[in-house]
């Protein structure tokens, strides 16, 4: 398990994070989401012992961070937001160098990852595109099959196909029992792979929940085509209206009454959508400001 408890970090008078708390269970993918500058990277750097915190406590497994980091570092796979290694070193030589830090590296597994991500290992690191640098970072982070995986904005620079491959890799790591933190500002990808999310704003988590529960709290989008008795739905919020259709926003608690009315009406077709994580995220940011 990973536990972050009430951590605070200021850079002089400037806020890094303020009272961030969350925990991630074994075999769970946790999405830390928020815009750039919200405090995600500060939190992750504190978890990796790269910066000190002013208050709070960070525990990975049963080890205190940063004090006991050396005792658990080889069980952590870390991918920073920006990947920079030795510029003049060839990728294959870098992997050989990286492998020396761990016992019993499975070179077959390493080769599988290289082939899966279509990485050319004869090039020097300085010759790689941003996306290929990110591939190197992904492989070095998971080649030792860590118990804890901490990825900061991992899909930056990856094309959609490689993003999908990364999601599959993380799903397999989850099945293996890894505890995974996945930081992102791209809400659609968090929705695809994360079990639970923490929404970060100005250094604080303003909402934490699993994605299904988040969706239940918010209104469903119901579009009805060729509805004749529109006047019967005057108590429901209209999102959009055109000649051939009308779209309502309906709370979960009001769904039964909505469909009871609809069952007595004439219409051609109906479409029901749950809110996307992006819509939920925007709604939380707005409500927090009000």
Automatic annotation (TrEMBL):
<dbReference type="InterPro" id="IPR003593">
    <property type="entry name" value="AAA+_ATPase"/>
</dbReference>
<dbReference type="InterPro" id="IPR050763">
    <property type="entry name" value="ABC_transporter_ATP-binding"/>
</dbReference>
<keyword id="KW-0067">ATP-binding</keyword>
<dbReference type="InterPro" id="IPR027417">
    <property type="entry name" value="P-loop_NTPase"/>
</dbReference>
<dbReference type="GO" id="GO:0005524">
    <property type="term" value="F:ATP binding"/>
</dbReference>
<dbReference type="InterPro" id="IPR003439">
    <property type="entry name" value="ABC_transporter-like_ATP-bd"/>
</dbReference>
<comment type="similarity">
    <text>Belongs to the ABC transporter superfamily.</text>
</comment>
<keyword id="KW-0813">Transport</keyword>
<keyword id="KW-0547">Nucleotide-binding</keyword>
<dbReference type="Pfam" id="PF00005">
    <property type="entry name" value="ABC_tran"/>
</dbReference>
<feature type="domain" description="ABC transporter">
    <location>
        <begin position="2"/>
        <end position="227"/>
    </location>
</feature>
<dbReference type="GO" id="GO:0016887">
    <property type="term" value="F:ATP hydrolysis activity"/>
</dbReference>
<protein>
    <submittedName>
        <fullName>ABC transporter</fullName>
    </submittedName>
</protein>
């Amino acid at each position: 398990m990973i536990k972050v408890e009430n951590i605070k970090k200021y850079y002089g008078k400037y806020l890094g994070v303020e009272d961030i708390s969350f925990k991630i269970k074994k075999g769970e993918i946790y999405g830390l989401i928020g815009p750039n500058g919200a405090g995600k990277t500060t939190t992750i750097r504190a978890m990796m012992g790269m910066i000190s915190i002013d208050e709070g406590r960070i525990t990975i497994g049963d080890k205190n961070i940063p004090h006991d980091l050396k005792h658990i570092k080889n069980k952590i796979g870390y991918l920073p937001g920006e990947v920079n290694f030795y510029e003049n070193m060839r990728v294959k030589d870098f992997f050989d160098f990286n492998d020396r830090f761990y016992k019993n590296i499975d070179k077959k597994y390493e080769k599988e990852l290289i082939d899966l991500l279509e990485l050319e290992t004869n090039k020097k690191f300085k010759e790689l595109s941003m996306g290929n640098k990110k591939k190197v970072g992904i492989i070095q982070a998971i080649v030792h099959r860590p118990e804890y995986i901490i990825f900061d904005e991992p899909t930056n620079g990856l094309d959609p196909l490689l993003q999908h491959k990364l999601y599959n890799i993380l799903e397999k790591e989850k099945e293996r029992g890894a505890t995974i933190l996945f930081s992102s500002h791209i809400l659609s990808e968090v929705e695809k792979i994360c079990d639970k999310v923490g929404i970060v704003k100005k250094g604080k988590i303003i909402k934490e929940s699993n994605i299904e529960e988040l969706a239940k709290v918010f209104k469903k989008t119901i579009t009805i085509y060729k509805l004749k008795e529109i006047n019967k739905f005057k108590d429901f919020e209209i999102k959009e209206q055109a000649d051939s259709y009308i779209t309502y926003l309906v709370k979960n608690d009001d769904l039964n009454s909505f469909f009871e009315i609809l069952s007595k009406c004439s219409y051609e077709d109906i479409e029901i959508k749950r809110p996307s994580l992006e819509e939920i995220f925007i709604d939380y940011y707005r409500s927090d400001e009000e």
